[in-house]
Design goal:
The chain has helices at residues 13-25, 36-45, 62-72, 87-95, 108-137, 149-161, 178-188, 209-214, 230-234, 250-262, 288-293, 299-305, 322-337, 346-354, 360-374, 387-390, 409-427, 432-438, 443-459; strands at residues 5-9, 29-33, 50-54, 77-82, 100-103, 168-171, 196-200, 239-243, 264-265, 274-275, 279-284, 308-311, 343-344, 379-380. It has 460 residues and is α/β, with parallel strands linked by helices. It folds into 4 domains: 5-133, Response regulator (Rossmann fold); 145-313, P-loop containing nucleotide triphosphate hydrolases (Rossmann fold), CATH 3.40.50; 316-390, Helicase, Ruva Protein, domain 3 (Orthogonal Bundle); 409-459. The chain has a 5-stranded parallel beta sheet, sandwiched between helices. A 5-stranded parallel beta sheet has the order 7-8-11-6-12. Strands 9-10 form a two-stranded antiparallel ribbon. The relative contact order is 0.07.
Amino acid sequence: MADARVLVVDDEPSMRELLGVVLRKDAYDVVLVDGGEAAIEAIRAEVFDLVITDLRMRKVDGLAVLRAAKEHSPQTVVLVVTAYASTETAVEAMKAGAYDYITKPFKLDEIRLTIANALERKRLVDENQALRRQLRQERSLEAFVGKSRTMLDVLDTIRKIADSASTVMITGESGTGKELVARAIHQESPRRKRPFVSVNCGAVPESLMESELFGHVKGAFTGAVASTIGLFAAADGGTLFLDEMTEIPPSVQVKLLRAIQEREIRRVGDTRDIKVDARLIAASNRDLAKAVADGTLREDLFYRLNVIPIHLPPLRDRVEDIPLLVAHFIEKIAREVGKTVRGISPEALAILERYRWPGNIRELENVIERAIVLGSGETLTPDELPPDLCRPQGVPTVPVHVPTAGIDLEGTLDQIERQYIELALQRTGGVQTRAAELLKLSFRQFRYKLQKHAQRLSKE
């Protein structure tokens, strides 16, 4: 970790400077502070990969620095250095989470090797944790299962834009996989090794939104007992994902706009600006044009965020993907719960295809999990599905009215039939076999009706 960020803590200037020279020579990013008080302030303001602290210092000792570092960032590696070695202090430091205990005077080659080993261990731990996070996040990859044109277009867009730093606006109903798309963009980008920071803006109290995004200094407001770096700084070099961003209050939207334009932020209560390099991806399940019109979303901010728009279709508009999604969920969930389930009956699948799915893919996954957990056979049947899904979904009715002058019944029925065919083709992305199934027609019947209406339109 040649680019690791290292904090050196010592109240002796000569020792601080010596370690600073050694570490910078090895290409580490070094911060030097005088004493434990300044160290704790620095630790609370940002995250360090390694902290090297003297044990005995005025006012605040090295053990306090060690505990503060582990409390703020458990992944930070801490080396304790002292001229007053004893078994008791060594044991106490190790119990508090120190990686190692080094006694003064030390040889420079020895401490350089200890530092290299400590950071290598941290790198391995970080990689292991990242792999675990990735495995947990694979649960959301089902949103990309499918063959519909709309989802193939989304995947193509992700590949095209990943290498850029342009802001992205993702829209779509809840449960369509907006955060999954944001993570995919991050993972496909050169920023993949830096943090992906996600926040649901609707879950942050309005009074804390500015501090949450930009951070604050100690004493900036009542309750600000310590400094924080904020989400923008936490995502430096990586990606910041703002979910439900229309929930950000207008007063904070102004500062968000400046952060995007200038690529710098100012913490609450601070007097200096901080440069940040975080790619911004925003998402919302609302009508953004309406949000701009009613003043919920600033128009200038909307244009700044909407450089690359991505819209995720609801599941009801990708009916052709439902069989693939169901098969994927069955295989995955059955394996997780330890059951043998090999498929779903045609009757049960037809019910799932007719349902409107207000909760989208997330709701479909929950339904399949419930069916597998409560079911007992190797095939899912309508009996395992929630009763609400099995009820008719409200077949549309045609208003019946016979005007005084009469009505062309055959022409009216032809028009209604043509509208249903067009709607079915839209739903299935033009796949005629699936459109025929939606209309409960054989493929031959469907083709006949399609050709009939095409001929009539050509004559018209």
